[in-house]
Design brief:
Oligomer: single chain
Strand content: 15-25%
Largest sheet: 7 strands, mixed
CATH architecture of the largest domain: 3-Layer(aba) Sandwich
Bound molecules: ligand TXE
Shape: globular
CATH class of the largest domain: Alpha Beta
Helix content: 25-40%
Structural class: alpha/beta
Number of domains: 2
CATH superfamily of the largest domain: Aldehyde Dehydrogenase, Chain A, domain 1
Radius of gyration: 24 Å
Length: 490
């Protein structure tokens, strides 16, 4: 049984409470480690370390900060295999995905390392003689970064790389289900040459440790990935101290297949949108909107391919669908299958626990497809976060767009068509932060990502992602120190 402590000021620190939380392997069900159960006292210590490190980090030139981030990227690439394996042990997602993701996170640190000394202010051509007015982008201070269990290191990179490049210091809280890869990753900062205190990790429960970060007066911003209800709670809590927030809150994304789509590519695209990562992805294309003229043939092929997925050990490169990460999530997915059936949807694939070959008897759900779904059903409106697809037929382009937008979320959307005009019209009309045409589930370090409506606030990645971690200062410098009339505005 391995024990993991907080990482504060460059060192492992035991929890003030002395308490730990068990952590298990979703594939075997085995409890293999325990993580520190952080409380307000631990958050205090981490915030104090980050606050102490902030002036020095802010004063470090952006070029020097960038070089350290690039060095960190090299270390991530060196250790990617190990970090990826830790993530699989924590969240049960496929090694093919988590290994690649761990390596990919390096790109965010490299990109923001390069961007660090390119964030320029402006000189404002004032309508007043003898005054130089310029703007500069300054860091916010200590930022709190709270991540979810589905992709711990990638979700963190989207936040942390931008925050550090901009000159902020950080307190991080990974999900209580998947904390160990983040703790191992934090060790790399010292080796890369970062002074201690710039990056601190506290682990623990959301309502205890996470909430203490939201309430902490010295943490000036919270960047969060998780559910919309927790995101709303964080937003409300942050309002008390007028904290800034960036929120990435998942969705119920439509994947629209028009009758002129390249059939086989669209089938694979829809499958990749929902069954990859066992559906545990914020951008899951959990609503397939399919033109009625191809609906039956499309469903038939979808069921054929999804039904042949190899289910089992996430550490095997031959596995297509792994276990559900957490016990509450497993129960939630099963509940939603029942909700769909009670709501009148027809289950044409799966619909139950999987205990066939490759399953270890823990948290496997069969890839599941529902037809006869209408967009007002709960299964079409609420995020399941599991391998459950709803197929909804449509007759016209206008109807497809109406159904796609008739939802409280707006993170992503997919469009499958060979008609360029239709692709452009649909991309314009869809209410989503990301639209993919003839592809799905693609993200990049330099392309802004974020949601509309209940899918969140703010953007991550790209230049916009860095602007979430700076505040603008406007400096006025007079050539001559004269105050003509002290009683009126100059
Ligand atoms: O999420 P939570 P959970 C969705 C998905 C899933 C549901 C529940 O639908 O079924 O969320 O998953 C921390 N103050 N997504 O329970 O509660 C918590 O410790 C501060 C979508 O895991 O949102 C964890 O670190 N922090 C999503 C993080 O918030 C708090 C990815 C996420 O937990 C807190 C994962 C509080 N009061 C789940 N309460 C996506 N957008 O991709 C909890 N936390």
């Amino acid at each position: 049984m391995e024990t993991f402590n907080h990482f504060i000021n460059g060192a492992a620190v035991a929890p003030a409470s002395g308490e730990y939380i068990d952590t298990d392997n979703p594939y075997t069900g085995e409890v293999w480690g325990r993580i520190a159960r952080g409380t307000a006292a631990d958050v205090d210590a981490a915030a104090a370390a980050a606050a102490a490190a902030f002036p020095g980090w802010k004063a470090t030139t952006p070029t020097a900060r960038g070089k350290l981030l690039v060095k960190l990227a090299e270390l991530i690439e060196r250790d990617a295999e190990h970090l990826g394996e830790m993530e699989v042990r924590d969240n049960g997602k496929l090694i093919a995905e988590m290994g690649a993701q761990a390596k990919l996170t390096a790109e965010w640190y490299r990109y923001y390392g390069g961007l660090a000394d390119k964030l320029e202010g402006s000189v404002i051509p004032l309508d007043r003689p003898g005054i130089l007015n310029y703007t500069k982008h300054e860091p916010l201070g200590v930022v709190g970064l709270i991540t979810a269990w589905n992709s711990p290191l990638l979700l963190l990179a989207w936040k942390l790389a931008a925050a550090l490049a901009a000159g902020n210091t950080a307190v991080i809280k990974p999900s209580e289900f998947t904390s160990t890869s983040t703790l191992a990753f934090a060790e790399l900062f010292g080796e890369a040459g970062f002074p201690p205190g710039i990056v601190n990790v506290v682990t623990g429960l959301g309502h205890e440790c996470g909430q203490a970060m939201v309430d902490h007066p010295d943490i000036v911003k919270i960047a969060f990935t998780g559910s919309d209800t927790t995101g709303q709670r964080i937003y409300e809590g942050a309002a008390k101290n007028l904290k800034k927030v960036t929120l990435e809150l998942g969705g119920k994304s439509p994947n629209i297949v028009f009758d002129d789509a390249e059939f086989e590519a669209a089938v694979m695209g829809v499958i990749s949108g929902i069954f990859a990562a066992t559906g545990q992805t914020c951008i899951a294309g959990s609503r397939a909107l399919v033109h009625r003229s191809i609906h039956d043939a499309f469903v038939e092929r979808l069921v054929e391919v999804a039904g042949s997925a190899t289910i089992g050990d996430p550490m095997s490169y031959d596995t297509h669908v792994g276990p559900v990460t957490t016990e509450p999530q497993f129960q939630k997915v099963l509940d939603y299958i029942k909700i769909a059936q009670e709501g009148g949807a027809t289950c044409v694939l799966g619909g139950d626990i999987y205990d066939g070959p490759g399953a270890s008897g823990t948290r496997f759900v069969q890839p599941t497809v529902f037809t006869n779904v209408t967009n007002d059903m709960r299964i079409a409106q609420e995020e399941v976060f599991g391998p459950v697809l709803s197929v909804i037929p449509f007759d016209t382009e206008a109807e497809a767009i109406t159904i796609a937008n008739d939802i409280n979320f707006g993170l992503a959307a997919g469009v499958w068509t060979q008609n360029l005009g239709r692709a452009m019209r649909a991309s314009d009309a869809l209410n989503a932060g990301t639209v993919w045409v003839n592809t799905y589930r693609a993200v990049g370090f330099n392309s802004p990502f974020g949601g509309w409506k209940r899918s969140g606030l703010g953007r991550e990645s790209g230049i916009e992602g860095m602007m979430e971690y700076v505040q603008t200062k406007s400096v006025w410098m007079a050539q001559e120190s004269s105050v003509a009339n002290p009683f009126i505005m100059r």
